[in-house]
Here is the input.
Amino acid sequence: MPEMPKRILILTTGTGGGHHSSSEAIRAAILEQDATVDVRAVDAMACFPGYNSGGDEQGYITFTSRFRVLWKAFFEITSVFAGASNAVLEKPIFKKFTRLVNDYRPDIIVSVHPCFVGSIINCLGRMKASTPVHTCVIDIGNPSRLWYDKRCASTYVPTERLREKLLREGFDAGRVVHSGFPIGARFDVEQRSATREISVPNVLMVNPTLLGPEMALNMILETLKHGVTLTVVTGSDKKLKDYLDERLSAVANLTILGYVNDMDARLSQADVLVTKAGPNMILEAVRMRVPVLVAGHILGQEEGNGRYVEDNGYGLSCESAKDLGEGLENLFANDYAVLRRLSVNEASCGDTDGAKTVAAHVLAALGES
Here is the structure.
């Protein structure tokens, strides 16, 4: 009988959004490096009783925008009491997670979601299963403490700063890898011309603010004052798209889109990205060498992402319409001198090859198992 292929289980969430994008990037990189393995990415939220899959993030958007302080409190409490949080998470997921592991029988588990790190290690302990767990941290500025568990076989972090932080906290140096952030191979800077000339700046705006549709409208109107061509992507926020369509349907040089599947192509044509501080969006732009104006952030896990952008010279933080206008003016002055310098800085970023690095380490561990 032929030997059964080794199996890798990737725990992600939803069918869209950042976790799904990162898990798909890792899955594709694993198969590119070794097509003989069996890799399955699973929406781990389905382990919760009553979970209704579908990839719609509207509930999450509502919670993090309308109840920002409550979300921050929830984030901080679960981080401070990570052990207790994992114990709470373990109980409702145990039955379905056990069934998933027994049915698939993975040789390695890779998690790209903080809720499924310590909690699933607890579950595996109750099952008396020895399946090694690897975790890939996909936050850059202020990750939840739920990401970090010394019982993990490997913890992959997007920045050297985060690796140094874990080493100071006593993590085994051989188990913490500065992998970079997992980004899909389709985000290929070769799509962009290194000598591209700018006549009319092309601005891409993706969910720029969590402070409501009026703030988003103000940011759009401020951006249009600078003689740009503007594309606004509202993603899963259907209410925002309806609001903007109603008020801006006749405005020239403006396109308003909902959820799109071609962000790589849109970034390849953009001169500037205006976005909230989501790590996937930021680092996809950095990989494509598109300067970033961070115009908002989720309290909790996205705090610090704007600082990451500024400290590394990849863009600016502009969390009001006034600041955004000043930021655009700064970027466009003197024949786009600052804009060009930021793009050059992005070319030296070492934090965007996470998919390949994680895949290589996981496959090496698989070979040793």
